[in-house]
Amino acid sequence: MQKTIIEPNGKSFQYWKDLWRYRELALNFAKRDFTVRYKQTFIGFGWSIINPIINMLIMTFIFGNLAGFSENSEAPYQMIVYAGLIPWTLFSRAFSLAAGTFVSNAELMKKVYFPRLIAPLGSSITSLIDTAISFAVLFLLMLFYHYTPSPRILLAPIMLIPAMFLGMFLGLFVSVFTIKYRDLIQVIPLLVQIGQYATPVAYSMNDIRTKISAKAAFAFLINPATGFVSAFKWCVIKTEVFDWRSFLISFVWLIAFIPIATKLFRKAERTFVDLV
């Protein structure tokens, strides 16, 4: 018979042992989130295909037709945009779901003990399912445009993992503040929308340096998502140049936020019941 040991100080490894022991619960959270999202919808998980395509068309019009970023593009511009949307959508969805962890799972967390990190981990798995569907659509676009990717595309799934964890840990950091300041929940979608246009999804860092300015490029470099989004596009698009600076900066953001967000989250989960 298994024993559950709940230690209030959180200083031992028992919490992390429980996290491993409750790993199947993360899959249940993922199944719940995926089912609830598409339950009683006529198209169902088809929205995982339709939403990114609509987003691709909008960004193609704005950055390709209006801003002129598609002028010197050797690869089909629509495919470049879609390739950028895959890691960005994974990052932003992991961020949004993790940021709302305490609020969206408050009733369950009040009643049942489980390591609270299980909830955002489960939500991130849901994001990976949507990403896998988008990846399949990307291959269909390649067939449609008769585009042959480079062997680097084998690295593309690997580049998605840090993007997901960066979004999740940034979300965990924000979730600590959503407990007390509920207005943040309403602000998050706006931040995500702004972030999509401030991240090299439909353009590259080289475009920023040549068409705007080097100073503007620095502002884009410090964007946490820039490096991982650009790295994924480099894996898919043959003409993309790997930007080491942005990649290393994104990696530093990830390494920094893992301990910071985890510590704050562990501290908040012991007292959030009194505030929600």
Précis, in short:
By secondary structure, the protein is mainly α.
Gyration radius, rounded: 20 Å
Biggest sheet: strands, sense, closure? none
SSE arrangement, N to C: HHHHHHHHHHHHH
| Approximate helicity band | over 70%
Mean pLDDT: 86
- Structure summary, number of beta strands: 0
Give the termini separation. 33 Å
- The geometry reads as globular
Q: Any low-confidence stretches, pLDDT <50, length ≥5?
A: none
Percent of residues in beta strands? under 5%
- Oligomeric nature of the chains: single chain
What does this structure look like?
- There is one protein chain.
- The model has no long low-confidence stretch (mean pLDDT 86).
- Helix content is 71%, strand content 0%.
- It has helices at 14-21, 23-38, 47-66, 77-99, 101-104, 106-111, 118-145, 156-178, 183-197, 205-211, 214-221, 226-236, 244-269.
- It is globular and about 55 Å long.
- α7 runs antiparallel to α8 (156-178), α8 (156-178) packs antiparallel against α12 and α10 runs antiparallel to α11 (214-221).
- The protein is built from 13 helices and no strands.
- The chain starts with 13 loop residues before the first helix and ends in a 7-residue tail after the last helix.
- The longest helix has 28 residues, at 118-145.
- By secondary structure, it is mainly α.
- It has one domain (14-274).
Identify the notable features of this structure and list them briefly.
276 residues; mainly alpha; 13 helices; 71% helix
